[in-house]
Structure formats: C-alpha cells, structure tokens
Amino acid sequence: MSDPSTKRRRLNGPTAADRETSPGYTSAGNDQDSKVANASNQAKQSKPQNSTKSANRFAEVGKATGLSKSSIFKLQTDELLAGLRPDYDKLVSTVQRNLRQIRDILQQVPERESKRADVAAKELRDKYRVTVPFPCHSSDDLAKCHVSSKPPTSIDLVGSVILRAGLQATEPFNVDIAVTIPSTLFQPKDYRNYKYFQKRAFYIACIAASLREAKVPFSIQYEYQDGDVLRPIIVLEPTENAAKDSLKQLIRIRILTAVEDDLFPVARTLPSKNNIQASGAEDEPQSTDENKSSPYYNSALRFESTVIPYQKWLQSSLKKYASMRDACLLGQTWLRQHGFASSIEKGGFGSFEWMLLLALLFEGGGANGKAILLPSYSSYQIFKAAMQYLVARDLMQPLSLFANDVEFPAGGPVFFDGKRGLNILYKMTIGSYKLLRHECSLTLSLLNETRFDNFEKVFIAQNNDPMLKFDRLVSLTPQQQVADPLHSVSYQNHIYDILEKSLGDRAKVISLWTDSPSPRPLKSKSLKETHSQHISIGLILDPENASRLVDHGPAAEMQEQAAAFRAFWGDKAELRRFRDGSILESLVWSDQGSVVDQILVYSLSRHLKVSRQSIKCIGDEFDETLQQLAGSEKQTAAMFQGVRDAFQSLQSSFQSMDDIPLQVRHLQPASPFLRSTAVISDPNDIGLTPVDINLQLESSTKWPDNLDAIQMTKVAFLLRIGEALKDNGDVNSFRVGLENESRRLVNRAFLDIVHKTGIQFRLRIHHEREATLLERKLKEGGLSPQYKEDVGAALFEYKKTFIHTPRLTQVVQTLSNRYPLLSPTVRLMKYWFNSQLLLSHVTEEFVELLAINVYVSTHPWASPSSLMTGFYRTLSLLSKWNWQQEPLILDMGGLTTEDVRAIETRFLAWRNIDPAMKKVGGNVREFEWRSSSKFKLDLRLAAFMDINDAFSASADTHTGHLVDDFGYVFVSLTAATGAVAYCRDGEYPWFFSDTSE
C-alpha cells in the first residue's frame, strides 16, 4: 500500500523542508540548473528532439577518442535528459498565485442539497450558464439519480509537477489539481449503472460554476480525462492578456477528481464483475456467461480511488530508486516519439502508465514474485529492462501482482496491481497493446545493434506518422449512432475482432484509433458525445501471406466449424475439392487489385452494416501509379524474366564459344534490367534500350601494357566476338561502338548485340590490368593536378563499371527474391526522381541504394510490406539524410564494426578532398557508391522536405483523419524554376530552370 509517511502536497507550494528532501528538487541558483534551464529554453524554441545536436556532438567526439558504444550512449542520454527536464521551480512560481486563488475558490464550493439530477442540472444551467456533462442523458436515468455537493475533502497538487518526472514539452504543460469528493455524497451501491459518474459530473459542474462566478483569469472548458467520456474534467487556460503578463510558457491547469480509496470495495470493482445492468435490476453483480462483465467501467471507477494512493506511492518510489526519475523521462520521450499517450485514442499507455509499470517492476513481476528491476540499475538499464519485459511477457495472459485468485475476462491486456485493485492497462485495446509490443521489439533491435549509433532512431526520430508505420490504412465512417458512453471502446473491440478473423495471418498488427474528443464550452447546449466517430485503421502486413488468393477453411466433415465459417463469410464462402483430395470451405479472391483491400471492404461492410462508400482504403494509389507507368506487375515481371532468359541464353553461347583466343571467365550482368529495377513505360519498347553486360576473359601476359593499346585490343576482341555470335545464329545483328571518345583513360569500346529474342545487349570487356596501370599512374611524380584528377576519375569509372555495378546487380537480384516489394519501390522512386527533374543529377544506382537501405538497414520500423510504405520511407530517408556529414551505410550481410569504422574513415577522407561528394556505402567487401557533382542539392533536398511535410500533413495524427489524395507527390515543383514551357498541349510540363543566381 502507499507510504503513510508521505504527506500530500498542498497548493501553497513546497516548503523549505520539502525542497531539501523532495527528489529532483534543484536550486535556481545552481550552475547545473542554469544549464538545464538553458537546454529547456532551447527545447521550447524548437522541439525537444533538437537537443540532440549536442548529443550527436558527443557521439562524434566519443568516436574520435575511441570511447565504447555504451559510454557514448550514456553521454548522449545525459545530454538529452538535461534538455528534457523542465524548470519546475520557475514553472510553479509562475502559477503559484493562480493556484492559491483556485484553491480558495474550491474550498468555498457551496453546499447544494440533494435533488433530482435533471432538476439540479437545470438550475446550474439557468443560473450560471453551466451545462452538466452527464455521461448518460436519458430522462429516466437522470430522474432516478439524486445529486448534491459540498466543499471537497481535500485539494492536492498531483501529477508530473509534484513528482518532477515530466517532460519539457512544446505543448501546453499540464498542472493537475485533484479534488477529493466527499464520501457522504455517495450511496453504497453508486458503483453500479453509472450512478457514481452521474454524481461526479454534477460535482465537476458545481466547481465550474464557482470558477465562473469568481471570474478567474482563465478560459474554462470541459475536457475528457484521457479521452474517457465517463470522466469529464475542467481545463483552465490563461487568456491572452494573462499569458502575456505572467505566463511565458503556456500552462494548462486541469482539475481532476478523486475519492477515498475505501469508498467502494475493491471486490465490487474487479474486472470480472458486472456493474452495468438492465434498468431496474437489483441483484448483486455476478460474473457469468449470461451476465457479461464490465472491465472497462469497473477500472475507470477504481481509477478514481487510486489517484491519491498512486501519487503517494510514486513519490516514495522516486525517492527510493535514484535512477527511476530519469528512466521515466526516457520512457516518456520514447512513447511520445512513437505516438503513444494515456488517452484512449493514442493507445491508452502513456507517461503515467510507464511510471506505474516501472514502480511495479521494482517490486515484482518476475519468477516467484521477484523484482525485475534492481535499485542499482542506471536509467538506461531500467529503460531497456522495461522494454525487454514488455516484449518477453505477453500480458494477454493476465499478470496479477500482490493478489491471488482474481479472475479476468478475456479481451485485453492485464497488468493487475493487487494492492490498489487496478489493471493499469485497462485503457489499452488488443490492437494498441500488440502495436506497443511490436514497437518495443523494434526498439530492442536498435539498442542491441553494436555497429551503428542508433540513439537518434530510438529517442529522437518521430515514429508516429501512420504513413511510415503502417503498410495499409483504412478510413472508416460508421453510420450507426449509439448513446452508450462506452460504445466507442466496445465498438473498436468489435471491429478488431472482425479484422483479426478476416485477415488472419495476413496482418501482424491491427491498430485502430479515433478522433480525440474536443474540449467543450461550459455553456454548451448539449455535451452528448457522438460515439460513432470516424475510425482509422492501420495494418502492418506479413508480406508472405498478404497477397494470397485462396484461403482454406475447415473441412466439410467438421460441421460446427464449417457452419461458423459460412456464417462469417456468407456468400463468399464456397466448398472446393483440392488436388490432394481434401474438400474444404474456401475463399477465392481476385488477382485484380489488393487482396487485403478486398477482404477489408467485404468483411467490414458485411458485419458493420456500413456502405462501401464509408470504407476508404489507402495505399493502392502507389501501385496504381506504377501500373499506369509500366503496366501491371505481371507484365513487368514477364518483361524482366524475358531479359534474364535472354542473358542466360547469351551466357551459354559464350561458354561454348571457341572462336576467340582467350576463354571466357565471366559474363556479368550490370544493368537495371537484369536486377529488375529499370523503368520503361512500354514493355514492347524494351529492345530500344541496351542492357549492359560485362565480359571478363582469362588472364594472359599477351595483353599490352599500355592503356591506349588495351582499348584497341578490346575493339579487336569485340569484332571477333560479334562475328562468332552472328555465325552461330545466337544474335540477329551486332555493331561495335565507341564511348568516352574524348577521355583516353577510360573504357571506349563496346559491342551492341541484338539477341534473337529482340533484346539489345551492350557488352564491355573487363580487363583487370587497367586498374593496375591507373593506380601506378596515380603514384607517379611530376603529374599536373588536372591530369592526376583525370586519372583518379578514370579509376573510379573503372571500378564503378566493372566492379561495383556487377556486384550491385547480384545483391539487388538476391534482395529482390527476399523482398518482393523492393523492385516496385525502386522503380517508383525513379519515377518520382524523374518527375522532380532530379534523375539527371544522380545515378540510377544511387536511387536503388536509397530504397535498399529501407529494407535491409536497422530502422524504427520493420521491412516494408507495401509499396506505399517502401516509397514513403525512402522519401522520408532522403529528406532527413544529412549527406554532407554522414555516409549512408547498408548492411548486406556480414558487416562488422570494423567495416563501419573503415567506411566512416574513408568518407571523412573523401569529404576533405571533395566537399560536394555524396556517398552510399555497402559492406566493404561488396561495393560502395560515390557521386561527386557540382550541382547543389540544397534546393532539391528542400523539395524533398516539402513533399515529406505534405505527406505528414496527409495523415493528421491529431484528428485521426486520413487523406487519400497523393497525386501531387509526382507533380514537379515549379517554385524553384525560372521558366516553365508547356509541351504536348499542356499534358506534360517540361521545366527549364534559370540557375544563374
């Protein structure tokens, strides 16, 4: 139970003794505090995550001085925490006078005699223009409920201000006041049928009337605590004049309610009890199948009794465990960056639940009741251990601490605090809990990664954008309106059950969220909340199963299961015989369009009785864009397969060729066509674009030792090869061509071959001696700077053409088999680059590596399972990548810490030589890609940022509404151009930019 030695903090602020003993209290004159205050002020100006500039600086210094990853991480964490801690003394002193004024008003709330709820509400509305925010509005319920009011039993400052465990935020800072309602206002059975919440709503309205009558310098509104319509609260926000005069940081004062912890017996509010019964029922609540339990209602009721006990207990825990406060800040930062909060709309797991979780894990949660967390742990160790616990322990299997023989109904996660009788996860749905575990698992992968500095990905990067997080989005507008205040919770659970059953193993995570209830003026004519809110659905798909066209149900002889299957799927279910002789209930989906979208529309419209126009699936727009560009995926796959077949045929021809003096060692693919990443508008035009291939012959001492002579020898070989292929009937025609005619040091001859399938190949000969000669020239003395630069460029061109490009082709081929969506993502990104007039400024390989990074490197997300997320994550990466200061390193397998250090060292060296360089590095044993260009990318990267912002705006995570119009993403930005010339009757704009400035 709570620590009896801990006193409640009154509203007259901390005493001198409290300041000496209060954990986290800091003196305003302390030097360390001034640093914290400066960091806090910087956080106010920009965003809390901007405090990582110093953290990143520590990382760079740490690497330079050889510090271990853990030491660097600790430096970064300490710097981040310094910028996250608010200046509580300054904050409290700012509102001290206002808090005392509010305390005096609350202590003088007038007594009101017991009356029928509807009569008492009318009096408040007529006299004070204050509407009572009753959760239930039926006239029968209000007529049967009698309400009254008295001054509160106690008034306490609660929450992060008194615990000193909150975050420095850009949003208004909440200062919470808990008003304990006198127990004499309630009857013993008021825990049933919303009676407590009806009386609570009236008490809140009485407080609002007193505040309005006192004319406090605040705007007064109703709001729902954590989005719970059962628990309206009062929110006081400074008026504009007050804010200018005294409140430099926007502060909101929230007035919450509490009751004595023994007002209602814990046994009557356990999750298994049913406290919502039919009107007129007088029997005691039971937990039976016929009498369904009301776990959410019971927990919301019990929460009111735990406000003060939890406040005392958390104060005691923060004093007892030195690192817990900082661990709370780290956890709150992580939750905020991932879009989690205590409100129901944001998952039901926020800063308060995180603190409770840590405090409980310090006392138990392990085997045989042992503690998971130890007092000796650092803040980082606490954070990581809590993450590991959330991943390892599936709380869908209820966990009860300090209480035995407690029954829990199925349908949600349970972490039950037996001492205070509350399931701290009661606001979480199954979907939000599974999403939380999924995010924790990804974060653990980042924390366990030893090769890269992932600090920013864990604590700084914003990972709450649904377009980045989910593979498929659905916007649902229910048509049914129900007045039940708990309908939103039950309705979401119903939708989740439908989706889980219909999607099966196609979806790894199903997440639902709704609009946040908006604040309500006190004089609203009606505070009745519309519970049939707009609902957004996010899916994280399993790529192996998402596109499956046939689903197998139960066998025909399993009559019960088959009947249930047909009842769920209706006319869509059909009985089929398969090749193995089995007869199964089955579902067959069309291969035209997304299978997931077909399932979503069918199952939701069937079981929710909503029109198909009310269901909007988001994500297929990108597949359609690519299809318009290059035909269907089937056509594209057939085209690429045709190229590969032709290449294999040509490879066989070379292996059997005996008309040239040297044997063939390798025929290597080196073209986007052979790695399935080429963009071509019409598959019928594939023969117009040469497919690059490289031929390597066996080594011989008869090759000349002069670069010019080597080029002439290549021409002779190419002529002989072309004639041999022509004579054997393997090709229709051939011709030898010259490239780079003005550059003597690079390859100049190639052979164009028109294969008998009509596909054109461009063959170049790879001779290893060229690299040796070029390296030797670089080491010669007396060379002019210009000539030396030409030699270096030739060596780079040689490695790119004959080493890196073939290796890249092999890697992309392998990865395309592992990630089927990689090829479409690359092609769509090339289309986007081209639409923004950027493809001429970067190489195709550069674009490919950007997309590959999204699939193979460690990120705060799993690998994309839809084209939408693959494309958007690549675009987001491009908009945020600081290419001037860091290389983009891809892990293709086998990458070690030493490899990463070598790449970073090489990058710094090249950066000193060529400040305009952009570099993407793979495994050092595989390839690296460097591009040097005089073209300034700053303006173009700004365009990337604009598009990224537009994408973020399209998914408004604050309101939950999703926008599905993404056509503008592939429209060129004309703001950066000096002139626009419209061609082809205005259908396709071609831009000519004046860059003279």
From TrEMBL:
It is found in: Nucleus, Nucleolus. GO terms for biological process: rRNA processing; tRNA export from nucleus. Pfam families: Nrap (PF03813), Nrap_D2 (PF17403), Nrap_D3 (PF17404), Nrap_D4 (PF17405), Nrap_D5 (PF17406). Residues 175-319, 324-461, 468-609, 621-816, 819-920 form the Nrap protein domain. Its main location: nucleus. Coiled coil: none annotated. The keyword Ribonucleoprotein applies. Residues 1-56 are annotated as: Disordered. Residues 23-55 have a biased composition (Polar residues). Belongs to the NRAP family. This is U3 small nucleolar RNA-associated protein 22. It comes from Talaromyces pinophilus.
